[in-house]
Design a protein that fits this description.
By secondary structure, the protein is an alpha+beta fold. Helices cover 44% and strands 13% of the residues. It has helices spanning 2-7, 25-38, 43-49, 59-68, 71-89, 97-116, 124-149, 159-162, 176-184, 222-226, 245-249, 271-274; strands at 191-203, 209-214, 234-237, 253-255, 267-269, 277-284. The strands form two sheets. A four-stranded mixed beta sheet has the order 2-1-6-3. Strands 4-5 form a two-stranded antiparallel ribbon. It is globular, with a radius of gyration of 22 Å. The two termini are 21 Å apart.
């Protein structure tokens, strides 16, 4: 991306995160700076609304500390963050409309994070609701970015989030991909990735990132059958596959669905119902992690 942007300064590739587990201190600072410049009389109110929320520790530590707070306290924090976008919207944009729009947007993202934790995670029904809110909000953030920029967007996420059908309906009742399809119609294409064997990086039960290595997929899995195709690596447009392969692709069977954490058991996934396009790799190799 950096090399491309050096060669194309007038048409750069930009990167935006759409997840809502963390809002860095920069977002809080940007909203506070805008208010201090455009509406200084509101600075004290804003400071009270953001009291105790601006991160001062790394993301992982912040999230752990946030989740350790009593549910009532997290709920009260979300009530405060929700007041900020509404407060800004009641103010005149002034001469710098772009600065105003970004302040409102950044305040909305801060509120999204607080509302992600405004669920009672001791209640299984609320866990499901929280995951649905997460995927719905991630999709909305991606749609906002596409409409704000008017450019093409390549969304990179775990297959379980970008697919049309949830692989774990009990915990993830509706996927980011389903919300994107509802918003964009044929403007959204879901691309799944599957592999037969190889290595990858994922966080283990000890909370540390490990390099994991898997051998051939199990009997009866999607991966085992896909590996019998004569090509080692290939791409399939699942929208145009005819019979008899169509019936096979629309049947759910065990499939690896590996995200940030591992180990994780395979999920029953019907490839043609979850994805528009499938990228199939015979083997994969874990990325080399940079020193932190």
């Amino acid at each position: 991306m950096r090399a491309y942007n050096v060669r194309h300064p007038g048409d750069p590739v930009r990167f935006m995160g759409d997840d809502i587990g963390w809002a860095g201190p920069g977002l809080y600072d940007s909203v506070s700076a805008y208010v201090a410049d455009a509406h200084p009389e509101l600075s004290a109110r804003l400071a009270e609304m953001y009291r105790g929320l601006r991160p001062t520790v790394p993301a992982g530590t912040y999230i752990e500390q946030y989740l350790d707070k009593p549910y009532a306290e997290r709920k009260e924090m979300a009530q405060r963050t929700g007041q900020v976008p509404e407060l800004l919207k009641r103010q005149a944009p002034g001469k710098d409309r772009e600065a105003y729009d970004w302040a409102v947007r950044n305040a909305a993202v801060v509120d999204q994070v607080a509302r992600q934790y405004d669920f009672d995670f001791d209640d299984p029904t609320q866990i499901s609701a929280a995951m649905r809110y997460r995927d719905e909000t991630m999709a909305a953030n991606g749609v906002w970015w596409q409409r704000h920029t008017g450019t093409k967007v390549s969304l990179s996420a775990h297959d379980a989030h970008v697919g049309h059908v949830p692989s774990d309906p009990a915990n993830y009742p509706e996927t980011q991909g389903a919300f994107l399809r509802d918003s964009l119609g044929s403007g959204y294409r879901s691309v799944g990735l599957t592999f037969e064997r190889g290595s990858f990086n994922a966080t283990g039960p000890d909370g540390v990132i490990h390099r994991w290595t898997l051998g051939p997929a199990g009997t009866g899995s999607n991966e085992r059958t896909l590996d019998q195709v004569r090509f080692a690596d290939y791409l399939v447009d699942l929208r145009s596959v005819g019979s008899p392969a169509r019936t096979w692709l629309e049947t759910a069977r065990p499939t690896r669905s590996i995200g940030a954490d591992y180990p994780e058991d395979p999920h029953d996934i019907a490839l043609a119902r979850s994805y528009d396009i499938l990228i199939r790799l015979h083997s994969v190799t874990a990325a080399r992690l940079r020193d932190r």
